[in-house]
Specification:
577 residues; alpha/beta; FAD/NAD(P)-binding domain; 4 domains; 5-stranded parallel sheet; 31% helix; 23% strand; globular
Length: 577
């Protein structure tokens, strides 16, 4: 910059670090840039590792996005592999490598990411136990499968990496069991979506244990905490990631309540010459405003770009020039997506459970609709949930599942979240429409209609969790519903689906009147009893609820998501053919 050469040192060479290095060069052609990576690869596609194991990405070389030689040729960045930084001397402005070498810096960016959590129970050191975080991890798994031909694999952990690798093992012809300590796979999602994922794996022949932890790994099996033994020729540990902050802590930098490194809105640590980015830092939730950890590749890349900009902006200020302008990092939504065989599950913002944990009085509206016009061939069901603040209608989060068009809706919802839109705003957005892509009212519009109608009282909605006492086997209230409860206190479940749908399976004790008969048979319903309407995916329930409200029923509500959601509740009282 203006003929002044300053040294930028970056610790960590994957998502945030590699992005930061390239950004610095674009801003300052005169900078001396050194990238220190403790592993043997730089700028590799760690999100693609499970897909190479599955065979979806055939060439291993496709995962190697850049090499030290390529980095130097294009950006004149000096990349040093197998160079672990073990300490930072902030007063001397230098880092020390494990080999004892000192590397001085003028400006330092930490981008060390996270490290997999390895539990301490017996057997984690055995040769058939793996993690999947780096290229060498992937190579070790592929080599083991080729050489040992395992018949059974146990995947411990039901998050992104665990599920993607479990699918890879299924595709490799290995019998898979997934073990998750929490009560659901993908714990960041609300229960219906987690259950859809579980059903899909079970359909592919996998076994799934939720709410169960591991106690030991042996040569040919794993033992769960309840004593269950599961055959295991191969074990993948994927139980979580913790921020890699030990180096920063040893240098006296502050760690927040989340366990990740504290940075300000410009991604600067408490040291004015050290910035940090990626999975190792805590950031602001753009929904709640609170500090959170969001270890995802998208935010990490953008943080690397911003941290680099602000480091160069500091140099510019010291030189008395105005470019570049510092960029604040406004936080992240946590938008994510995962492929489950031929299905997609995605979310942005808060789940209903997360919103309530954050102390927000939230509600949800769920609908099941085709992803595009039904008269155009190939339409598939799309399950969509909007989570919103009850008092204001402010959108808090969105979840979706289906075979096509899922990520499109989630991306649109992410923009709506960033803009602070309400569900009423969403009712009026004109999304792109042509029969192969959507309907005149997009599923997001329709979900917003349901939420807006509930808020106005035009068509009350009741969520699955509100119905738990009445629909789950073993519930005290549920047992009362079948006999001893006061008729005025218990809801009547009115199922308005077709005869075939009802006969196939339905809620125990529900009354069946198909939608097209409700107008002629409404007098069969008790006028002073709460009525909860069950339809296939919510829409027919909306029609029946409106009809009954106009007939004078004062306590009637549509079951959000209909049977598509109710049937997924663990322990639900179901009968049918």
């Amino acid at each position: 910059m203006r003929g002044v050469t300053k040294k930028f040192v970056i610790v960590g060479g994957v998502a945030a670090g590699a992005t930061a290095a390239a950004r610095i060069r674009r801003l300052d052609e005169d900078a001396d840039i050194v990238l220190l990576e403790r592993g043997p690869y730089v700028s590799f596609a760690n999100c693609g590792l499970p897909y190479h194991i599955a065979g979806d990405i055939e060439k291993r070389s496709k995962l190697l996005l850049q090499t030290p030689e390529g980095f130097f040729s294009r950006y004149r960045v000096t990349v040093r592999l197998n160079s672990e930084v073990v300490s930072i001397d902030r007063s001397a402005k230098r880092v020390t490598l494990r080999n004892g070498e000192y590397v001085p810096y003028d400006y330092l960016i930490l981008a060390q990411g996270g490290v997999p959590v390895i539990p301490s129970f017996p057997g984690v050191e055995l040769s058939h136990v793996f993690k999947l975080w780096t290229i060498p991890d992937m190579d070790a798994i592929n080599r083991y499968i080729k050489e040992k031909d395992p018949k059974n694999a146990v995947v411990v952990g039901g998050g992104f990496i665990g599920l993607e690798t479990a699918e890879a093992f299924v595709k490799r012809g290995i019998q898979v069991t997934i073990v998750e300590l929490m009560d659901r796979l993908m714990p960041n999602l609300d229960l219906p979506y987690s259950r859809k994922i579980q059903e899909r794996f079970e359909k592919e022949g996998a076994m799934v244990f939720v709410g169960k932890g591991l106690s030991a790994i042996e040569e040919k099996r794993v033992i769960l905490q309840d004593g269950t033994a599961i055959p295991a020729d191969l074990v993948l540990l994927s139980i979580g990631v913790r921020p890699n902050v030990e180096l920063a802590k040893s240098a006296g930098l502050s760690v927040g309540a989340t366990g990740a490194l504290e940075v300000d809105s410009y991604l600067r640590t408490k040291d004015p010459y050290i910035w940090a980015a990626g999975d190792m830092v805590e950031v602001v939730s753009r929904v709640t405003g609170g500090k959170v950890r969001i270890p995802l590749a998208g935010p990490a890349n953008r943080q690397g770009r911003i941290a680099a900009t602000n480091a160069v902006a500091t140099l510019a200020k010291e030189l008395g020039v105005e470019y570049p302008t510092p960029i604040p990092y406004r936080g992240a939504l946590g938008t994510s997506v995962v492929k489950i065989f031929d299905e997609t599950v995605a979310s942005t913002g808060l789940s209903l459970a997360a919103a309530k944990r954050a102390g927000i009085k939230a509600r949800e509206a769920t609908i099941l609709k085709p992803n595009h016009a039904t008269y155009y061939p190939g339409s598939e069901d799309l399950l969509v949930t909007l989570v919103y603040e009850e008092s204001t209608g402010r959108l808090l989060g969105t979840e979706a599942q289906g075979k096509s068009g899922v990520e499109k809706r989630i991306d649109a919802a992410a923009v709506a979240l960033s803009a602070g839109l309400t569900v009423e705003d969403l009712t009026e957005i004109d999304f792109a429409y042509a029969p192969p892509y959507s309907s005149a009212n997009d599923p997001l519009n329709i979900a917003a209609f349901a939420a807006s109608n509930a808020r106005s009282g035009y068509c009350p909605l009741v969520s699955v969790e509100d119905l738990h006492p009445w629909i789950i086997e073993g519930s005290t209230e549920g047992n009362d519903r079948k006999g001893s409860a006061s008729p005025s206190a218990e809801p009547l479940f009115l199922d308005v689906r077709t005869y075939g749908e009802y006969q196939r399976e339905h809620l125990l004790g529900s009354l069946h009147i198909p939608l097209d008969e409700v107008r002629d048979r409404w007098e069969e319903l008790p006028p002073n009893r709460p009525i909860r309407v069950i339809s296939s995916g919510g829409y027919e329930g909306h029609l029946a609820t409106r009809l009954l409200m106009q007939k004078g029923f004062t306590d009637v509500a549509n079951c959000s998501g209909g049977w598509a959601v109710l049937r997924l509740v663990p322990g639900i009282l179901i009968e049918g053919n």
